[in-house]
């Protein structure tokens, strides 16, 4: 059966596996103190054009959001996010579990707009009573967003300026960062992310790794005793080589970029076909996720041959669904899907 | 200076102080095991017409919400509340501090409507993915609401039915319950609250006590080892006599009802004056809080002689303000204020 | 029936009640912003001979310990305490509830000795592996201890020096501080406590107040947004006047000292009688708590006429019990008890 | 350089890597819903001779302890552990981070003895005051312990009976379970663990896997919505295939047993050599960890050629060190080390 259900259905890019195999019997220090992790950090610093970036590897996206947000916030602070933010909707309350509120702002195509953010912060500090309120202590955005949309460089810069003005860090969830950076239309490159964000993570799990996300603190702002905090959250891998070797490989010879490009290219072929065949898009997304409004009858028919995601009910007769391509999507599969449309 | 700034500016009704004085040298067991606490519980059970009600005394509203919500929720659950709910806006994240998310629903005049609740719960359980979401484990309403509005008996019954259908408890925050029950137009009496809610609290701090809220579990549903949970939250008073004697007095000879009526009567006189003088109401509230849209110039003038609360900016030239009466408001003060309008 | 069961069985000293009554109808700002709270803080600063002391009022001991320890600790830190420390034994895990470990050190007569503390800290920082351990972030002592024993000035100074060396604050739980300061044999006065401790609290609940503890930060070290943190823990009293007026009265004309002295004087009479009648002391305590080893038969007999506390089983035939005097103990009651011995 | 520093320095057994490679391009459902995870669970149930065992895969030991202990405990409960328990010493307070206290009992050779446990529980329930204490809600043991020692079948049975009597679950941390089960002298087999423990985990990270621990609930006692709880803790792997395939391979053709035996055999050769050469053992450990008291001079000399672990200072001139063998230890390396002794 064809699968466009998500971008983490396959294992890892073969080059990553090969390196795991090649280095397998080397006796290495644990908890990230191995040379492959060091090498990966160096390459990520270079790719970010940020020599003082401090890099750590964690296992998955929710874990990364939870650890990093908790570590950065003061106890009386919460994190500002768009209403569609992954931390607010599909992480089982992992942020609140650490004691911190998510301060919701209405989204626009999945994005947190600079205007909405500025209005929120202005209003908060105008309120005479804010001693009884949760202080905004961080801003969370995802790029690409949960709707596959992207910030422009100007938007990131503006968000960064607002955060700077209020002295709170800007945090970017890059679970699918590779697919955002690879978009032909984006003007945002990895050094821009590193420049405008105080911290962010480069997603591995959804972009060709078995597991692993690379957290990057860009401004000399790593929380004190961060490794202990990671341990305290149960998130410190004994075999730090596992994400280390994978990220070292992803950032060798442009593999991460290449994987991103492939998925976006595959999505582009599929998008064009949807357009040509007159399908209705729920949202315009330039990355690897396509949101289509299907008639329910057609949905049932298609489901027999293709796996894709239910997104939400549109009306009685229509449903929003998502087709995702990935680093592992074969062009032949895209062609087969197109033939079925 | 006149003060209509809130309903907790004075100490306690004199009868409460008098009883504290009279019983002062009695040697009593601590932590709520004294006979006055027992007597108060008995009277509250009678006033609720709920013989199996289990009653506990805590110090303040935020503390009560925090302890009770945390104690009732399973670890994977959150609490559903209107966007204007006090727990969501002005309790400094006390609920999230305990690890639980607040699941926000848009309000209607400060209320959580049965329709909105039902739609929310339906949608949650229709979602295929809810394993990654916070489960709704409780519904929070306040009565009167933060806008001074009231639920009807039919609305409470409907909310109760929906909660029953989804097997989650309905919790009513009664910080100002006395002012709600005393409204001439309400059809909700204390036994109705006890019937339709699985738990609620009767506010003392804002209705004539120095401190103290009475939590009532109405369905044999007190969480196991609740006293230990209260202690764990730092909320167990050594001298349980302090709230016990006060509530015992409040529920003797109808004092609680009388204090509520007085505040509502005072608000009625003031409301009539605002109407007659052509003031614009921000919201129609039948209880002890009046929300008025003032021209900013007038606001400045009035502020010199009267204390009242800033609520929110209305537009560039207008501000929403709140005038609150209380058990302690003197009719002469209301007359003075009216003369200033 | 005679009661020596504890020091919080009665209400409050009459002067406190009288002031509550006298000020009752004054319309005051909430949350501690009233002039009585201000006045109380001023008097406490003076009594501590510490002009920059920052003072806050909370309701009870466990709450105070929980809020203050959580507010002072970094997320990766725990609090060092003697194995007998109240936070470690009888506060239902209130500190752990906030996410922080208690790092236990064996006690000596209820005290944390400077030697034991220094050895612990040395060993911790010698350990190569301490990235995987909870960092000691604060030292907790109680004075008097849970066994009624007292630190000497030299011991406090030494503890303070060790804490200073490791840059962690020394926190003193003064639930019964009044009874410690009033001891004829102690060389520790309130200004010493303020000098050697980075923070401490002056207990009200056990020394003549209805409720209330005064937290004192002595080194310009109040945690940022402390009021919000207090609110977040559900510990902010709307009517801050309640503890404010009580502490203002306790620190007027030496009342706090006088109440302490009375209890210690009563304990002295009782101690002398126990000695004369050949009773065995479990521990030598100079304050208001006396720990006696009773034969079980005698215990049963005495229990019919006097209330006192079970402490622990001593052996099959003997039990350790506690007799506590307080600000409210009458000399006639002490005489009656002595007649029964 | 030779390394006996721990048992997680190498990658994974080659058969595991091979299966990861072979299955790599299969499109599988995420979050543990893949057929390899299913197959692994089936094989584990068989190996445990426990048909109703419910199995879940997590990434590492601290994470597993944190998630499982938090999920099993009621909010007012703590977990009983030996003073040497890993959760109590080297997990950075991960259990306390979830709000639960660890109730420490002195260890005996790293073990929690049935007598000590029973005395503790008896004393707790005899205490009149336990409403203000943390309730024991679970018993934690590790097997092998942190000192490499093992429980006998009779001891496990006795611990199980005591837990049953007090209606609290017995939890076994099996980070190194493979090395315990493979000991020639043990009478404890995997079905015994499943019979006597209410839950336990089978360690993968230290016994031949890249990562992964298999949690087994043996009595139909899986906490409700456990997957959501795992997600809430940030511990749910998107690619559940990663631990699934590894455990499926470990439990095929007795590989897990074989890996355990190898390490124990290597340790046996080394132990014999230490004995013959007159070295002093700090503790008698029958598994893959050997604790030796070295003269400091010798330690320095040996360190130049071999990696091993500092354990603790013994006296001024001696140090306790640990040599660990593993599934990956080569006999030639053991011979080289012996030659150096």
Description:
- The structure is a homotetramer of 341-residue chains.
- The first copy, chain A, has 341 residues and is an alpha/beta fold.
- Chain A has 2 domains: 2-7 and 256-335, Aspartate Aminotransferase, domain 1, CATH 3.90.1150; 14-254, Type I PLP-dependent aspartate aminotransferase-like (Major domain) (Aspartate Aminotransferase, domain 2, 3-Layer(aba) Sandwich).
- Chain A has 14 helices and 13 strands.
- Chain A has helices at 14-22, 35-47, 61-72, 86-89, 94-97, 114-126, 153-165, 177-181, 190-196, 226-232, 241-250, 255-276, 296-303, 331-340; strands spanning 2-3, 54-58, 77-82, 102-105, 135-142, 170-174, 199-203, 213-217, 280-283, 289-295, 306-307, 309-313, 318-324.
- In chain A, the strands form 3 sheets. The first copy, chain A, has a 7-stranded mixed beta sheet with strand order 2-8-7-6-5-3-4, sandwiched between helices.
- In chain A, a hairpin with a 4-residue loop joins strand 12 and strand 13 (318-324).
- The longest helix of chain A has 22 residues, at 255-276.
- Chain A is globular, with a radius of gyration of 20 Å.
- The model of chain A has no long low-confidence stretch (mean pLDDT 97).
- Chains A and D meet through helix 1, helix 3 and helix 10 of A and helix 1, helix 3 and helix 10 of D.
